[in-house]
Amino acid sequence: MERGHIFNPNYVLVTSPSLLFDPTVKPLDGMVEGSVLFVNSSKDVPIVDSKKIRVIYRDVTDLALKHVGKDILSATMGAVACKLSGLIGLQSLVDSVSEELEELGLEPELIEKNIQLAKECYSSVESISLCGLEYRPLHNVVEVRYMGERGIPDLLSMGNTALRKTGSWRVLKPLIDRNLCTACGICYIYCPESCISLDEQGYPLINYDSCKGCLVCAVECPMKAIKAERESVWS
Amino acid sequence: MSITKYKTLKDVPREEFLVSGTSLCAGCGALLVIRLFHKALGDNVVWVNAAGCVTLMATFPYTPLKSSWFYTAMGSAPAGAQGIRDALDILIKKGKIDPTENLKVVVVTGDGAASDIGLQSTSGAIHRNLDFFYLCVDNEAYGNTGFQASSSSPIGSGTTTTRPTHLYPMGNFLPKKDLFEIWRSHRPPYVATISPSHVVDMFRKVEKSLNFKGPKLFLALSPCPTGWGAEVSESVKLARLAVETGIWPLKEAVYGEVTHTYIPPKRRPVEDYLKVQRRFAHLFKPVKNEGAIAEIQKQVDEYWSKVVH
Amino acid sequence: MSDEGDKSGEGERMVLKMLTGSQAVAWAARLARVDYIPAYPITPQTEIIEILSEWVRKGEMDATFMQVESEHSLLTAAGTAAATGARVFTATSSQGLLYGFEMLYSIAGWRAPLVLVNVARALAAPITLEPDHNDVLAARDSGFLHFYAENVQEALDLVLLAYRVAEDHRVLLPAIVNIDGFHLSFTRERVDLPEQDAVDEFLPEYKPVNPIRASKPVAKGIPVLIPPLYSFFKYQMHMASRNALSVFREAAKEFEKTFSRDYAPVEEYMMDDADTVVVMSNSFASAGKYAVSVLRGEGYKVGLFKIRLFRPFPTDDVIKSLRGKRCVLVIDQNISVGKGGIICPEIAEALYHLEDRPKVILPVIVGLGGKSISLEEFRHAVSVAERLASLGARPDGPLLLFREDEAILVESLLKIASGG
Ligand SMILES: Cc1ncc(C[n+]2csc(CCOP(=O)(O)OP(=O)(O)O)c2C)c(N)n1
Ligand code: SF4
Ligand code: SF4
Ligand code: SF4
Ligand SMILES: [Mg+2]
């Protein structure tokens, strides 16, 4: 049994394929031969499968949108984990979901929708029971050296959050229709994320690496020139 | 208003001081306020921050800002600003650093820090006539810790510590603290309310405040889709509704002298604003609480009846 | 105060004066040419900030004195000013130190060097004005360096040494210099007051690391949410603090050259042939020294070991001085309620692995809320330790020293309070 940080997971569930390659997340670390990787994605994403892990793809975001109308992923991923591991039954899952959401003060109809969502996620995968997987020691223990001024928690590289690619958060993608756009610049003014810029003629350009898909731009556009489209695979 | 650079949205400078990629929620009003406010302030800024949602803009090893940032503590960001301001002044005066190294010192905190735990520190800084800016991004609760009530939460709003129940049908039954008036009572050179929906108004106010030495304080309505239970895409629309219903008056006070910078020609009913946010849902469902809504409307009407047109 | 005074005998570079502890640390701040003094009054620290504000207002000191609205703000402003590159001095005491407590860890974590004089005063409740060390020891784990002064001269000298060590780039941590309320703060003693040019020579200009400047933006104090990274920065602070041991020795050597006064992290008194050693710190160590000299006359082979630098903890010095001794009594002028003294376990841990560790390490509590320590109490504690050693017995909890005259006094006061 591991608690907190899981070093040798039997099952790994990844909410977005973009996280697979994030150096600060490294979800595949510690996975061994025979362990199971679940990726929330409609398409297969190439994974360097050196350890012969089993990979399952399902688009649970789609299910969330269908049932709840929003990309709420906690109930979905929880349900998948319950089923995959075979450790938690459907009733316990349903009870937990309704209790958690009641605590958040959600209305009964919305809780019911979430339960339906959890149920469908639960039935969307099969249990894979795993035992006797072989673990290899992964880590050496090292001594920390004194690093002088580098050991001071000051940050000197300014404006570097763009490295984080928050575009992976997006469920709906804003698309600008150049035929309707009058280059008024209003979308640029109101984008909270600084990810709309204006070209020389004043036409807006969206930085999709960072755009979180809030669609404030679409609501504010006086020409209704920005349409929302369901994001397919983010890469 | 006196001569201004800002006539229309076209006059908003293109330079960005805040790059994308923060971990703040999609549609965060506070983030939009900070982005626009920084454009109005220009460069050479050091932000001094108290604990709150915007603290998570910069987490090691990332910062979205091209300017300096100092996270201090929840209760004492204005005192942090005091130390930086004083140190810069001393070092320049003693010739230890070049005057071109000078910075505008800008405190940015949430409403909980501003109205509750940090009020003493703010009062001290204003009283000492500290030359600084204060930007309070008001999302009307303790957002970072999960949206508990602050003294800035409006009456009738549900938060995670003022849940509406049959014993407490209003949710939060305490009035919103009037931070504008608390600040103004110190008679600092400049106090203003701003809204991310009214950008030209915001830019003109910041522009004007730059002429004053001493405390310059801004209270910004900052829609919080997560805590308010509103559509992420409607943050700006909600802010505009707050102004158009008269719930969020746009005003300024120069050495205590108040002027309303925008008077809604025909105020929309407060219901239009309340009904689109889950934090007020209990006022509409399962049965409409006409009395509570009328009371909120009455308070807004009374406010405006005292405003000299 | 006038600048006149006798030229001291030994060196040319100082002037003899009669100063209180408060005046002495104020002089140290002045001689260190501090830039910034944020302040908030609390007894018994007030004299320090009154003197400094007067000097600034008269133009005798080129510094900014800023009275703020609380110690929490005081420490915040002190820390951000130091991080911006100003040399900062401030002072507080007991309730004030605890009121600003959150910021002690922050300032240390910012790696912002400054000097904070704590004028020791016991903590409420019950509230009092008299000293013990629960206030300063509450800051033990914060990352501040801790310097403890026994007399007025030391108070002045340790402030100068503290700046030199704290600002050294191998260290970059803030420092507390502790002086006991009343016993040092308001007691006048003869002091060699260093001359300005000598101090200038000893104390180089403060060179801040990553200060806030228009030309070079920096983000400071930001959250570190990645657990190994947090551990890493804390380990770095610890190692920087450990560096302060050798940096202190280096600085003390320089100090000795300039001012002919020699400071080590610890001090030994009559220890050469001692079997029993009394461990103490701060101003009550003088009473301890007196007791030791009297007990020597009575035939006790006793000495005193004084801790001057408490953080970083001078483990090697403790081992060097206390190994092979028969009995060690640690006099803690503080109490961790439900355990005992705070310093005693640290001494015991330093000695634990030695073959020739003392037979008895006796925890002794005395001097809380300024309670005096009499010769009889020292004698009693020494004899308890020696008896335990000869019996091969272990101490039964800390010895809580109290005298009969005090018991009678307490009884009479309780009677008044209860109306009985
Ligand atoms: C001394 C102290 N008490 C409590 C907290 C916990 N805390 C961190 S952020 C926060 C909420 C801040 O609310 P607000 O100032 O309104 O900012 P928001 O998060 O809503 O933007 C609280 C209570 C803290 N960091 N420090
Ligand atoms: S708001 Fe609409 S019309 Fe205006 S620039 Fe943006 S897309 Fe074009
Ligand atoms: S969807 Fe949101 S983040 Fe993306 S461009 Fe529009 S306003 Fe900016
Ligand atoms: S909780 Fe609200 S204020 Fe905080 S980041 Fe999210 S939207 Fe912004
Ligand atoms: Mg808030």
Task: Report what the structure shows.
- The complex is a heterotrimer of chains A (235), B (309) and C (420).
- Chain A is an alpha/beta fold and 235 residues long.
- Chain A has six helices and seven strands, in the order βββααααβαββαβ.
- The longest helix of chain A has 16 residues.
- In chain B, strands 2-1-3-4-6-5-7-8 form an eight-stranded mixed β-sheet, with helices on both faces.
- The longest helix of chain B is centred in the first third of the chain and has 17 residues.
- Chain B starts with 28 loop residues before the first helix and ends with a helix.
- Chain C folds into two domains: 257 residues, Rossmann fold (3-Layer(aba) Sandwich); 142 residues, Rossmann fold (3-Layer(aba) Sandwich).
- Chain C has a six-stranded mixed β-sheet with strand order 11-13-12-15-16-17, sandwiched between helices.
- β2 of chain B pairs parallel with β10 of chain C.
- The site of magnesium ion has 8 residues of chain B, from α3.
Q: What structural keywords apply?
A:
heterotrimer, A: 235 residues, alpha/beta, Pyruvate-ferredoxin Oxidoreductase, domain 3, 3-stranded parallel beta sheet, two-stranded antiparallel sheet, globular, B: 309 residues, binds iron/sulfur cluster, binds magnesium ion
Please describe the topology of this protein.
The complex is a heterotrimer of chains A (235), B (309) and C (420).
Chain A: E1 11-14, E2 36-40, E3 54-58, H1 60-67, H2 74-85, H3 90-103, H4 108-123, E4 172-176, H5 186-190, E5 196-198, E6 204-206, H6 216-220, E7 226-230
Chain B: H1 29-41, E1 45-49, E2 68-71, H2 77-93, E3 104-110, H3 111-117, H4 119-127, E4 132-138, H5 179-184, E5 190-194, H6 199-209, E6 215-221, H7 225-228, H8 235-244, E7 250-254, E8 257-262, H9 270-274, H10 290-305
Parallel strand pairs in B: 1-2, 1-3, 3-4, 4-6, 5-6
Antiparallel strand pairs in B: 5-7, 7-8
Chain C: E1 6-7, E2 14-20, H1 21-31, E3 36-39, H2 46-57, E4 64-67, H3 71-84, E5 89-92, H4 94-99, H5 101-110, E6 115-120, H6 134-138, E7 145-148, H7 152-167, E8 175-180, E9 188-194, H8 196-202, E10 219-220, H9 227-259, E11 266-269, E12 276-281, H10 284-297, E13 302-307, E14 309-311, H11 315-322, E15 327-332, H12 344-351, E16 360-365, H13 375-391, E17 399-400, H14 404-418
Parallel strand pairs in C: 3-4, 5-6, 6-8, 7-8, 12-13, 12-15, 15-16, 16-17
Antiparallel strand pairs in C: 1-2, 2-9, 7-14, 11-13
Helix pairs in contact in C: 1-2, 1-7, 3-5, 7-9, 8-9
Bound molecules: thiamine diphosphate, iron/sulfur cluster (3 copies) and magnesium ion.
The site of one iron/sulfur cluster (SF4) has 13 residues of chain A, from helix 6.
